[in-house]
Amino acid sequence: MNDSRMRVVDADESGKIRERLLRFERESRYLRRDSDERKVLEEVFDRSTMLAVEELIARKDLGELHGVVRAGKEARVYLGEDRAGGAVAVKIYLMSASDFRKRMGYIAGDRRFGKLPAGSRETIYLWTRKEFKNLQLAQGAGVRVPTPVSFLKNILIMEYIGTPPDPAPTFSEAEVGEEEYRWTFKTIGALWKGAGLVHADLSEFNVFKTGGGPVLFDMGSAVLSSHPQAQGFLKRDVSNMVRFFRKRGIGETEADEWMKEISR
Protein backbone atom coordinates (compact mmCIF):
# COMPACT_ATOMS: atom_id res chain seq x y z
CA MET A 1 0.00 0.00 0.00
CA ASN A 2 2.77 2.42 0.90
CA ASP A 3 4.65 1.45 -2.26
CA SER A 4 1.55 2.16 -4.34
CA ARG A 5 1.14 5.62 -2.86
CA MET A 6 4.83 6.36 -3.47
CA ARG A 7 4.46 5.48 -7.16
CA VAL A 8 1.50 7.87 -7.48
CA VAL A 9 3.51 10.68 -5.89
CA ASP A 10 6.43 10.02 -8.24
CA ALA A 11 4.13 10.09 -11.26
CA ASP A 12 2.56 13.35 -10.09
CA GLU A 13 5.97 14.95 -9.55
CA SER A 14 7.12 13.77 -12.98
CA GLY A 15 4.04 15.33 -14.54
CA LYS A 16 4.62 18.63 -12.76
CA ILE A 17 8.25 18.78 -13.88
CA ARG A 18 7.29 17.87 -17.44
CA GLU A 19 4.57 20.55 -17.57
CA ARG A 20 6.88 23.20 -16.16
CA LEU A 21 9.59 22.35 -18.67
CA LEU A 22 7.10 22.34 -21.52
CA ARG A 23 6.03 25.84 -20.52
CA PHE A 24 9.65 27.01 -20.52
CA GLU A 25 10.24 25.31 -23.87
CA ARG A 26 7.38 27.30 -25.36
CA GLU A 27 9.05 30.49 -24.20
CA SER A 28 12.46 29.48 -25.56
CA ARG A 29 13.89 31.25 -28.57
CA TYR A 30 15.32 27.96 -29.81
CA LEU A 31 11.96 26.42 -30.68
CA ARG A 32 9.35 27.88 -33.00
CA ARG A 33 6.52 25.36 -33.49
CA ASP A 34 4.52 23.52 -30.84
CA SER A 35 4.97 20.17 -32.60
CA ASP A 36 8.73 20.68 -32.52
CA GLU A 37 8.59 21.59 -28.83
CA ARG A 38 6.76 18.42 -27.91
CA LYS A 39 9.03 16.26 -30.06
CA VAL A 40 12.22 17.66 -28.51
CA LEU A 41 10.79 17.55 -24.99
CA GLU A 42 9.96 13.87 -25.38
CA GLU A 43 13.43 13.23 -26.83
CA VAL A 44 15.10 14.79 -23.81
CA PHE A 45 12.73 13.87 -21.01
CA ASP A 46 11.97 10.22 -21.51
CA ARG A 47 10.99 8.23 -18.43
CA SER A 48 14.59 7.31 -17.59
CA THR A 49 15.70 10.95 -17.78
CA MET A 50 12.76 12.10 -15.64
CA LEU A 51 13.69 9.55 -12.97
CA ALA A 52 17.32 10.72 -13.12
CA VAL A 53 16.23 14.36 -12.62
CA GLU A 54 14.16 13.28 -9.61
CA GLU A 55 17.05 11.29 -8.18
CA LEU A 56 19.42 14.26 -8.52
CA ILE A 57 16.87 16.39 -6.66
CA ALA A 58 16.39 13.70 -4.01
CA ARG A 59 20.12 13.44 -3.34
CA LYS A 60 20.35 17.24 -3.20
CA ASP A 61 22.65 17.67 -6.18
CA LEU A 62 19.92 19.75 -7.83
CA GLY A 63 17.27 22.05 -6.38
CA GLU A 64 15.28 23.31 -9.38
CA LEU A 65 15.30 22.93 -13.15
CA HIS A 66 14.28 25.88 -15.32
CA GLY A 67 14.36 26.76 -19.01
CA VAL A 68 16.67 25.83 -21.85
CA VAL A 69 19.60 28.19 -22.51
CA ARG A 70 21.43 26.34 -25.27
CA ALA A 71 20.27 23.64 -27.69
CA GLY A 72 22.19 21.32 -29.97
CA LYS A 73 21.71 18.11 -31.92
CA GLU A 74 23.12 15.96 -29.13
CA ALA A 75 22.29 17.85 -25.95
CA ARG A 76 20.40 20.71 -24.39
CA VAL A 77 21.61 22.90 -21.53
CA TYR A 78 19.12 24.11 -18.94
CA LEU A 79 19.36 26.71 -16.23
CA GLY A 80 19.10 25.01 -12.87
CA GLU A 81 19.49 25.90 -9.22
CA ASP A 82 21.42 24.12 -6.53
CA ARG A 83 19.90 23.59 -3.07
CA ALA A 84 21.11 27.04 -1.97
CA GLY A 85 19.48 28.78 -4.94
CA GLY A 86 22.68 29.33 -6.90
CA ALA A 87 22.68 28.92 -10.66
CA VAL A 88 23.98 25.71 -12.22
CA ALA A 89 24.07 24.45 -15.80
CA VAL A 90 22.24 21.17 -16.35
CA LYS A 91 23.35 19.47 -19.56
CA ILE A 92 21.03 16.72 -20.72
CA TYR A 93 22.10 14.51 -23.60
CA LEU A 94 19.27 13.49 -25.92
CA MET A 95 18.57 9.79 -25.68
CA SER A 96 17.40 9.86 -29.30
CA ALA A 97 20.60 11.40 -30.66
CA SER A 98 21.93 9.20 -33.45
CA ASP A 99 25.31 10.90 -33.78
CA PHE A 100 26.75 9.23 -30.70
CA ARG A 101 27.56 6.01 -32.53
CA LYS A 102 29.69 8.14 -34.87
CA ARG A 103 31.63 9.36 -31.85
CA MET A 104 32.90 5.96 -30.77
CA GLY A 105 36.35 6.96 -32.02
CA TYR A 106 36.58 9.38 -29.11
CA ILE A 107 35.91 6.54 -26.65
CA ALA A 108 37.73 3.64 -28.30
CA GLY A 109 41.37 3.70 -27.24
CA ASP A 110 40.64 5.50 -23.95
CA ARG A 111 42.10 3.24 -21.27
CA ARG A 112 39.79 4.74 -18.62
CA PHE A 113 36.68 3.07 -19.96
CA GLY A 114 37.62 -0.46 -21.00
CA LYS A 115 35.08 -2.39 -23.05
CA LEU A 116 33.02 -0.32 -25.48
CA PRO A 117 29.29 -0.08 -24.75
CA ALA A 118 27.01 -2.19 -26.92
CA GLY A 119 23.98 0.10 -27.14
CA SER A 120 23.29 3.78 -27.77
CA ARG A 121 21.87 4.35 -24.28
CA GLU A 122 25.01 2.96 -22.64
CA THR A 123 27.15 5.02 -25.04
CA ILE A 124 25.40 8.25 -24.00
CA TYR A 125 25.75 7.38 -20.31
CA LEU A 126 29.46 6.72 -20.82
CA TRP A 127 29.85 9.98 -22.76
CA THR A 128 28.29 11.90 -19.85
CA ARG A 129 30.66 10.27 -17.37
CA LYS A 130 33.57 10.95 -19.74
CA GLU A 131 32.76 14.65 -19.89
CA PHE A 132 32.55 14.84 -16.09
CA LYS A 133 35.94 13.13 -15.72
CA ASN A 134 37.49 15.36 -18.39
CA LEU A 135 36.27 18.48 -16.59
CA GLN A 136 37.84 17.20 -13.38
CA LEU A 137 41.16 16.47 -15.10
CA ALA A 138 41.25 19.86 -16.83
CA GLN A 139 40.39 21.75 -13.67
CA GLY A 140 43.01 19.80 -11.73
CA ALA A 141 45.62 21.03 -14.22
CA GLY A 142 44.55 24.65 -13.73
CA VAL A 143 42.60 24.94 -16.98
CA ARG A 144 39.53 27.16 -16.62
CA VAL A 145 36.46 25.03 -17.34
CA PRO A 146 33.00 24.93 -15.73
CA THR A 147 33.39 23.29 -12.34
CA PRO A 148 31.78 19.82 -12.49
CA VAL A 149 29.19 19.22 -9.77
CA SER A 150 27.56 15.86 -10.41
CA PHE A 151 26.35 13.48 -13.12
CA LEU A 152 23.81 10.70 -13.45
CA LYS A 153 22.96 8.70 -16.56
CA ASN A 154 22.64 11.30 -19.37
CA ILE A 155 22.64 14.37 -17.08
CA LEU A 156 25.66 16.51 -16.18
CA ILE A 157 25.48 19.32 -13.61
CA MET A 158 28.19 21.98 -13.64
CA GLU A 159 28.96 25.60 -12.90
CA TYR A 160 26.82 28.11 -14.80
CA ILE A 161 28.95 30.43 -16.90
CA GLY A 162 27.17 33.72 -17.54
CA THR A 163 24.56 35.92 -15.90
CA PRO A 164 21.36 33.88 -15.53
CA PRO A 165 19.31 33.36 -17.52
CA ASP A 166 21.83 34.31 -20.23
CA PRO A 167 24.94 32.22 -20.83
CA ALA A 168 28.22 34.01 -21.45
CA PRO A 169 28.97 34.74 -25.11
CA THR A 170 31.32 32.42 -26.96
CA PHE A 171 34.36 33.57 -28.91
CA SER A 172 32.22 33.31 -32.04
CA GLU A 173 29.78 35.86 -30.58
CA ALA A 174 32.25 38.27 -28.97
CA GLU A 175 35.13 40.59 -29.75
CA VAL A 176 38.47 38.85 -29.27
CA GLY A 177 42.02 40.15 -29.31
CA GLU A 178 45.62 39.30 -28.51
CA GLU A 179 44.75 38.36 -24.94
CA GLU A 180 42.29 35.70 -26.05
CA TYR A 181 44.71 34.54 -28.75
CA ARG A 182 47.52 33.98 -26.25
CA TRP A 183 45.13 32.36 -23.76
CA THR A 184 43.88 29.88 -26.35
CA PHE A 185 47.21 28.35 -27.25
CA LYS A 186 48.48 28.49 -23.68
CA THR A 187 45.35 26.57 -22.68
CA ILE A 188 45.73 23.96 -25.42
CA GLY A 189 49.28 23.44 -24.11
CA ALA A 190 48.14 23.25 -20.48
CA LEU A 191 45.54 20.64 -21.40
CA TRP A 192 48.14 18.59 -23.27
CA LYS A 193 51.00 18.83 -20.78
CA GLY A 194 49.17 19.33 -17.49
CA ALA A 195 45.98 17.31 -17.85
CA GLY A 196 47.16 14.86 -20.51
CA LEU A 197 44.11 15.78 -22.59
CA VAL A 198 43.22 17.00 -26.06
CA HIS A 199 39.90 18.80 -26.43
CA ALA A 200 39.46 17.12 -29.85
CA ASP A 201 36.54 19.35 -30.92
CA LEU A 202 37.92 22.81 -30.22
CA SER A 203 36.50 25.82 -32.05
CA GLU A 204 35.31 29.35 -31.41
CA PHE A 205 31.93 27.90 -30.45
CA ASN A 206 33.09 26.17 -27.27
CA VAL A 207 35.06 28.87 -25.48
CA PHE A 208 33.13 31.37 -23.37
CA LYS A 209 34.36 34.93 -23.04
CA THR A 210 33.76 36.31 -19.53
CA GLY A 211 34.88 39.29 -17.48
CA GLY A 212 37.11 36.93 -15.50
CA GLY A 213 38.73 35.44 -18.59
CA PRO A 214 37.85 32.75 -21.13
CA VAL A 215 36.31 29.43 -20.09
CA LEU A 216 36.69 26.25 -22.14
CA PHE A 217 33.64 23.97 -22.32
CA ASP A 218 32.09 21.01 -24.20
CA MET A 219 34.70 18.55 -22.94
CA GLY A 220 32.87 15.36 -23.90
CA SER A 221 35.05 14.76 -26.95
CA ALA A 222 38.32 15.25 -25.08
CA VAL A 223 40.68 12.27 -25.14
CA LEU A 224 43.80 11.34 -23.22
CA SER A 225 47.15 12.16 -24.80
CA SER A 226 47.73 8.39 -24.95
CA HIS A 227 44.77 7.97 -27.31
CA PRO A 228 45.85 6.58 -30.72
CA GLN A 229 44.47 9.66 -32.50
CA ALA A 230 45.53 12.25 -29.92
CA GLN A 231 48.17 13.91 -32.10
CA GLY A 232 45.75 14.20 -35.00
CA PHE A 233 43.07 15.71 -32.76
CA LEU A 234 45.61 18.13 -31.30
CA LYS A 235 46.66 19.34 -34.73
CA ARG A 236 43.03 19.80 -35.73
CA ASP A 237 42.29 21.85 -32.58
CA VAL A 238 45.31 24.07 -33.19
CA SER A 239 44.47 24.51 -36.87
CA ASN A 240 40.85 25.38 -36.09
CA MET A 241 41.86 28.12 -33.68
CA VAL A 242 44.62 29.50 -35.93
CA ARG A 243 42.03 29.72 -38.71
CA PHE A 244 39.49 31.45 -36.44
CA PHE A 245 41.90 34.10 -35.20
CA ARG A 246 43.22 34.71 -38.71
CA LYS A 247 39.67 35.53 -39.80
CA ARG A 248 39.60 38.10 -37.02
CA GLY A 249 42.96 39.50 -38.18
CA ILE A 250 44.86 38.18 -35.16
CA GLY A 251 48.05 36.13 -35.04
CA GLU A 252 50.75 35.26 -37.55
CA THR A 253 52.07 32.01 -36.09
CA GLU A 254 51.38 28.96 -38.24
CA ALA A 255 49.65 25.86 -36.89
CA ASP A 256 52.83 23.77 -37.30
CA GLU A 257 54.79 26.26 -35.20
CA TRP A 258 52.19 26.12 -32.45
CA MET A 259 52.26 22.32 -32.60
CA LYS A 260 56.02 22.34 -31.97
CA GLU A 261 55.60 24.79 -29.10
CA ILE A 262 52.80 22.78 -27.48
CA SER A 263 54.33 19.34 -27.98
CA ARG A 264 57.88 20.02 -26.82
Write a structural description.
This protein has 264 residues and is of the alpha+beta class. It folds into two domains: 2-166, Phosphorylase Kinase, domain 1; 169-263, Orthogonal Bundle (Transferase(Phosphotransferase), domain 1). It has seven helices and eleven strands. The strands form four sheets. Strands 1-2-3-5-4 form a five-stranded antiparallel sheet, with helices on both faces. A two-stranded antiparallel sheet has the order 6-7. The chain has a two-stranded antiparallel sheet with strand order 8-11. Helix 1 crosses helix 2 (34-44) and helix 6 crosses helix 7 (255-263). The longest helix is centred in the N-terminal third of the chain and has 26 residues, at 2-27. The chain is globular and about 50 Å long. Mean pLDDT is 86; it is low at 1-11 and 27-40.
Features:
264 residues; 17% strand; 11 strands; two-stranded antiparallel sheet; single chain; 5-stranded antiparallel beta sheet; Transferase(Phosphotransferase), domain 1; alpha+beta
Offer a quick outline of the entry.
This protein has 7 helices and 11 strands. It has helices at 2-27, 34-44, 47-58, 120-140, 178-195, 230-247, 255-263, and strands spanning 64-71, 75-81, 87-93, 148-152, 155-159, 162-163, 166-167, 197-198, 207-208, 215-216, 223-224. It is globular.
Query: Which CATH C-level class of the largest domain is it?
Result: Alpha Beta
Uncertain regions spanning at least 5 consecutive residues = 1-11, 27-40
CATH topology of the largest domain: Phosphorylase Kinase, domain 1
Give the overall shape. globular
What is the SS-derived class?
Answer: alpha+beta
Biggest sheet details: 5 strands, antiparallel
Q: Round the Cα radius of gyration to an integer and report it.
A: 20 Å
